[in-house]
């Protein structure tokens, strides 16, 4: 397109018609349509481009910038950019019609291409312009593939446009990149992440800035060094996203699909329901019940379902005090199907059918006189093995308030282990359980775990009751 930018034609429609051969386009010529001819040409070009599925990559050395499409099996080695979006970013359509240099975000891409070339890469992936966002099918495929694309990249360049390299590293925490939802997977997935300041001067790498990044994000240093994040509990992984924001509310959930290795349709407009669906998908793949180890920020007088409303409710799951220094690490204990004591949780028309270890409120005793609010303690979570639990009898379920045992927990500054429980209330009419006092959890000494009996119950999965 840039080759024709300075050329003129007698008739305005011919600005489009004279380019049909160059792009291999065959469309009707309608003299009198004016500028609409060029708009039709662009749509025809995009229609041809959209027929090619796969990984779109910028050719680093091309001027003007061009995009090449590769099948997943034939994709070359490539670099990838992680950044925060600003106004006037370069789009896929801008690349096609040669308008990329007119956008404010062009210089960022140009500088990234230059850095990639210096590092020996011929191709670069950038989320603003390597996805045709006018195609809902392509957008869906790209979001589902993004974690994999970042993981497969040879290097990830993280551009911090609001950080001056002359500033102390302590100011990294103020960069908005560390507060955005999508950049969480962009930090974890790639093996090599290099950080650059606003002038594209190198700050450091994920490896040599590991402790600073862990302090800022709460992410386990071993994960930053390449350990498999799926070996950590659901609650801990959720806590990494607890202080992050997205422009669209649904992206709070969609940006976490790669981290939890789940895939689901994107339905923009569904609002908070997206995060509920994410948790439901996670439960289909994992019986890690730390997914229930959350604490609401709203009124504790309300009754809730078992599922959290957003990642922010997992903030206290593993990271209430961000600057605690310690070396204690706990790995989740996952059970194989033959070790399970009950069938997996399942969504039904009556609610979530689930087996949980329960203890009636009247036998809790004085060790936990009040629900314990997770406000100032940083916790590690372990899955509950449950091999010592025995099924309970139906008469036990005639009460109304219970403790449900979720997992073991241990404060990182203590070697003492406890069991973490949530309060449930049984509705006397429907028999369906709801989460009681959702702003709190209860902690009991681990020795009391043998008092809990396993029961299969129906629980409200989501929603709020007065």
Automatic annotation (TrEMBL):
Name listed for the protein in its UniProt record: Vegetative incompatibility HET-E-1
Segments forming domain Heterokaryon incompatibility: 78-167
InterPro entries noted in UniProt: DUF8212, HET
Start and end residues of each DUF8212 domain: 273-296
Lineage, broadest ranks: Eukaryota, Fungi, Dikarya, Ascomycota, Pezizomycotina
Organism the protein comes from: Hyphodiscus hymeniophilus
């Amino acid at each position: 397109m840039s080759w024709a930018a300075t050329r003129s034609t007698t008739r305005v429609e011919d600005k489009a018609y004279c380019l049909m051969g160059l792009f291999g386009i065959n469309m009707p010529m309608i003299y009198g349509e004016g500028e609409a001819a060029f708009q039709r040409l662009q749509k025809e070009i995009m229609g041809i481009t959209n027929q090619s599925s796969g990984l779109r990559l910028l050719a680093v050395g091309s001027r003007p910038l061009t995009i090449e499409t590769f099948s997943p099996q034939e994709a070359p080695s490539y670099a990838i950019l992680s950044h925060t979006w600003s106004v006037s970013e370069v789009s896929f359509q801008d690349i096609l019609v040669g308008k990329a240099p007119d956008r404010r975000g062009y210089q960022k891409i140009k500088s990234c291409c230059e850095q990639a070339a210096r590092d020996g890469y011929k191709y670069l992936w950038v989320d603003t312009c390597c996805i045709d966002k006018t195609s809902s099918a392509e957008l869906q495929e790209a979001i589902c593939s993004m974690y994999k694309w970042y993981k497969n990249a040879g290097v990830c360049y993280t551009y911090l446009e609001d950080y001056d390299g002359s500033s102390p590293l302590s100011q990294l925490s103020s960069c908005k990149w560390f507060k955005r939802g999508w950049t969480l997977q962009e930090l974890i997935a790639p093996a090599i992440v290099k950080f650059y300041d606003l002038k594209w001067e190198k700050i450091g790498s994920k490896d040599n800035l590991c402790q600073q990044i862990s302090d800022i994000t709460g992410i386990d240093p071993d994960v930053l060094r390449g350990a498999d994040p799926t070996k950590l509990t659901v609650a801990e992984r959720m806590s990494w996203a607890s202080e992050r924001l997205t422009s669209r509310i649904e992206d709070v959930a969609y940006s976490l699909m790669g981290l939890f290795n789940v895939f689901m349709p994107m339905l923009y407009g569904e609002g908070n329901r997206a995060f509920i669906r994410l948790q439901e998908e996670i439960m289909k793949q994992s019986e890690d019940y730390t997914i229930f180890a959350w604490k609401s920020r709203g009124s504790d007088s309300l009754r809730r379902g078992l599922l959290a409303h957003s990642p922010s409710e997992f903030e206290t799951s593993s990271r209430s005090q961000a600057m605690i220094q310690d070396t204690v690490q706990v790995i989740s204990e996952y059970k194989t199907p033959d070790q399970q004591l009950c069938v997996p949780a399942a969504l039904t028309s009556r609610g979530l059918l689930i087996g949980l270890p329960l203890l009636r409120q009247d036998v809790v005793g004085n060790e936990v006189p009040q629900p314990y609010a997770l406000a100032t303690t940083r916790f590690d979570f372990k899955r509950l093995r449950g091999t010592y639990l025995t099924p309970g009898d139906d008469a036990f379920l005639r009460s109304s308030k219970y403790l449900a045992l979720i997992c073991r927990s241990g404060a990182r500054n203590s070697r003492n282990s406890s069991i973490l429980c949530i309060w449930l209330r049984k509705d006397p009419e429907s028999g369906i359980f709801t989460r009681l006092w959702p702003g709190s959890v209860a902690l009991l000494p681990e020795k009391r775990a043998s008092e809990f009996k396993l029961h299969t119950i129906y629980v409200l999965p989501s929603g709020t009751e007065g």
